[in-house]
Design a protein that fits this description.
Helices cover about 35% and strands about 25% of the residues. By secondary structure, the protein is α+β, with helices and mostly antiparallel strands. The strands form four sheets. It has a four-stranded mixed β-sheet. A three-stranded antiparallel β-sheet has the order 6-10-9, covered by helices on one side. It has a two-stranded antiparallel sheet with strand order 2-3.
Length: about 230
């Protein structure tokens, strides 16, 4: 089953109170990387993503956090070493950090909804997607733009190709939360797409080779991360 977890950023004062304990969960190499962020929100997003993923992975696999070995591909896709049947992916935007886990390949993307730059769609969306998008009026057009963007990103993240694969080389079709992927000549197997209602100001999409998705997002708070065994 594909499961989704989310945690919301806290205000700077409460973050600073928890920062030292959160950092202590991570290996030294990651602590140094996270401490290089100049903006507090950027640091918090990165730190919460790393801590959330390690705690959930430890709970699901039974491997102690200190013994987890997480590698990254050249395109940044994370992988749990020596656990080929366990897959996970992280995304963050604005006030949210999300994690998707599965026993099959998985990619997840969350984006804060804002005023779209539609010329980006002209460059990165397929012809079929553009036709559908341009038939809509605001605010439906704005919402559909971010539907497509997050769904396409989740697929690329599942593949682990990043932007080395063109967003316009495949097509997402559908509406009202029901979407599918078509027209990708490199697609070898069927993949499944799902969206979750995390926050009315955000779009959250996930893609996996597993068709069984949890019914809702499991939301956690920093206190739960700190109190986990």
């Amino acid at each position: 089953m594909v499961e989704v977890f989310a945690i919301k950023l806290v205000d700077e004062e409460n973050y600073i109170k928890s920062r030292k304990e959160l950092l202590s969960i991570l290996p030294e190499s990651l602590i140094l990387k996270i401490q290089r962020f100049k903006r507090v929100d950027d640091e918090q997003r990165s730190l919460l993503g790393e801590v959330l993923s390690r705690i959930i992975i430890s709970e699901k696999t039974g491997i102690k956090i200190n013994n987890l070995s997480i590698l990254k591909s050249e395109n940044g896709k994370p992988k749990l070493q020596n656990c080929p049947d366990f897959h996970f992916n992280i995304s963050h935007s604005g006030q949210w950090v999300v994690l998707g886990i599965a026993n099959a390949q998985v990619g997840i993307d969350v984006e804060k909804i804002k005023k779209p730059v539609y010329r980006i769609a002209e460059r990165y969306f397929s012809e079929e997607e553009l036709i559908t998008l341009n038939q809509l009026s605001e605010p439906a057009k704005q919402a559909y733009f971010f539907d497509l963007w997050t769904l396409k990103e989740s697929y690329l993240k599942m593949l682990g190709k990043g932007l080395t694969k063109s967003l316009g080389s495949f097509t997402i079709t559908g509406s009202n939360g029901v979407f599918s992927l078509i027209n990708d000549k490199f697609l070898k197997d069927i993949v499944f797409l799902k969206q979750y209602n995390l926050d009315p100001l955000y779009k959250l999409s996930i893609c996996s080779e597993d068709k069984t998705f949890s019914s809702s997002v499991q939301q956690l708070e920093i206190e739960q991360l700190l109190n986990s065994d």
